[in-house]
Design a protein that fits this description.
Layout: H1 6-20, H2 24-33, E1 37-41, H3 43-49, E2 57-62, H4 66-74, E3 79-80, E4 88-91, E5 94-99, E6 102-104, E7 112-114, H5 120-125, E8 135-137, E9 143-144, H6 149-155, E10 157-158, H7 163-167, H8 171-183, E11 186-187, H9 189-197, H10 205-218, H11 223-231, H12 235-238, H13 240-243, H14 260-271, H15 279-291, H16 296-299, E12 301-303, E13 306-308, H17 312-324, H18 331-343, H19 346-353, H20 357-367, H21 373-385, H22 400-411, H23 436-450, H24 456-464
Parallel strand pairs: 2-5, 10-11
Antiparallel strand pairs: 1-2, 1-8, 3-4, 4-5, 6-7, 8-9, 12-13
Helix pairs in contact: 8-10, 8-11, 11-14, 14-15, 14-21, 15-18, 15-21, 17-18, 19-22, 21-22, 23-24
Length: 468
């Protein structure tokens, strides 16, 4: 990465930013007229220099008190005061954070001291990493870089502007993890040593989840962050279920990549490249790829000279749940991942046995409503691609078994959803009163339907014959 043309990049991208946020310039002018100086700060400056899409706009205002900034913003819109005690404001209808320089005490409930006249150097020293401790003067377009963050960005170095401030917030440990994965940057010696020993036990699950989600959703190779946890000796403590896969050998020649841990790392990187319909589905797929073989350490054994891991899929489902509950708060996501882990061997079994339409229909029913055969096929693909004997990266190819599995699901009309039932409870009310028997009749009718019976009258008659 070289930034010798950074001024032109900044000017061009700021012009685009002002076009995207037309309300921004009048506010910045009003701040300037009131005697304040506005700086674009944080991740948006880093992403702008990397020429990546800017996701969040953060502006830090120096030279104005909290009340003065509130008065300026109030002239141009309705001010959201929810974050005022932390020196943060929002204007309704404008997705921009306006903040004031502040000094926070350490601890989970820090005391916030707003200091509008704090120097740029002191204000930026409190940020987590030098690559996030840069600013752009909104009026002049000048890059403000008191800790050589631009150099670190170019050289791929993760470094803290002030290691003492960094140590006060253990969440920053997980931020290093996700930044390393997203940008493939190397923490410097001082930061590495601190991360080896930081106490992260008090970090809330909600905040850990945010950092894991960023790592998974914004990385081309999420495994880089996981491998780093292992390298600095923290994987066993934080993700023991994943640590247990290290050194667990697999059946040859199906797994030439090495142990289960290497396979899972390749699989999650493969999953990161597979298109998904939305962010939730992507997270489900990535976590499923990361967890799908967690059962192997429990069941793997040598049988007649060969390694067997028979039954690892159902065994792995509760193990995946246990691990994810420590880092994920979304119950449906956890349950969906566990379901995919439990069923992840079915695609291979189906293609090998030449399974017929009823089998695909039943599989779609098992996966519904939160997963689908299409999603299971994506996990199947990631599993197959995570077998590169050249360790570190997954294969980049398609597989006949995956294509066959998808084609058969399409032929059964259940690729994305389970087959809709032809009969419901209403269709049986003329002969069965509401109650358990009615539910059993509907269930039986649906089973017969999946077996291929499609005439409604015949379906009803056959279902009722089981209750005589």
């Amino acid at each position: 990465m070289k930034f010798n043309k950074k001024t032109k990049i900044i000017q061009r991208d700021l012009a685009h930013l002002y076009d995207t946020y037309p309300k921004l310039m009048p506010i910045l002018n009003a701040i300037d007229e009131a005697g304040g100086t506005a700086y674009f700060v944080g991740g948006m400056v880093r992403d702008l220099l990397l020429q990546k899409q800017i996701k969040d706009v953060d502006i830090e205002v120096h030279g104005l008190t909290s009340d003065q900034l509130q008065q300026v913003l109030a002239q141009l819109g309705t001010v959201d005061l929810v974050g005022k005690s932390f020196g943060v404001f929002k204007l309704y209808g404008l997705d921009v954070d306006w903040s004031l320089p502040r000094a926070d005490s350490s601890g989970r409930k820090p005391t916030v001291e707003i200091d509008p006249h704090m120097s740029i150097s002191d204000a930026f020293a409190r940020r987590d990493l030098t690559i996030n401790a840069m600013g752009i003067n909104a009026k002049t377009g000048e890059l403000v870089d008191p800790f050589d963050g631009l150099y670190d960005l170019e050289k791929g170095i993760l470094r803290s502007p002030n290691i003492d401030f960094f140590a006060q917030d253990p969440l920053r440990f997980f931020r290093v993890m996700q930044f390393k994965a997203r940008f493939n940057m190397q923490p410097d010696t001082e930061l590495t040593q601190l991360c080896k020993t930081m106490d992260v036990s008090k970090v809330s699950r909600e905040r850990i989840e945010q950092e894991f989600n960023k790592m998974l959703l914004r990385s081309k190779q999420p495994s880089i962050g996981i491998r780093w946890l292992n390298k600095i000796g923290r994987l066993k403590e934080l993700l023991p279920e994943l640590y247990d896969t290290i050194g667990v050998q697999q059946k040859q020649p199906y797994h030439p990549e090495g142990d289960v841990f290497e396979h899972l790392m390749q699989a999650v990187d493969a999953a990161a490249q597979i298109p998904c319909k939305n962010e939730h589905e992507r997270l489900v797929l990535l976590y499923a790829a990361l967890c799908h073989d967690l059962g192997k350490p429990k069941v793997s054994k040598v049988v007649d000279g060969n390694i067997s891991s028979h039954g690892h899929a159902p065994v792995g489902a509760p193990i995946a749940k246990k691990m994810l509950k420590r880092i994920v708060g979304h119950k449906t996501l956890i349950d969906t991942v566990a379901k995919l882990v439990k069923l992840h061997m079915d695609p291979l079994g189906f293609t090998k046995s030449n399974a017929k339409k009823p089998a695909y229909k039943r599989l779609a029913k098992k996966l519904a409503p939160d997963a689908s055969i299409a999603l299971l096929a994506k996990l199947f693909l990631a599993d197959k691609q995570g077998r590169n004997p050249n360790k570190g990266t997954p294969l980049d190819c398609t597989f006949e078994e995956v294509d066959t599995f998808i084609k058969n699901a399409q032929n059964a009309n259940v690729e994305h959803n389970q087959e809709p039932p032809l009969l419901t409870g209403k269709d049986f009310l003329d002969v069965i009163e509401p109650g358990p028997q009615l539910g059993k009749a509907v269930k039986k009718a649906y089973e017969l339907q999946m077996d291929g019976l499609s005439d409604k009258a015949a379906l009803k008659k056959e279902a009722l014959s089981f209750f005589k």
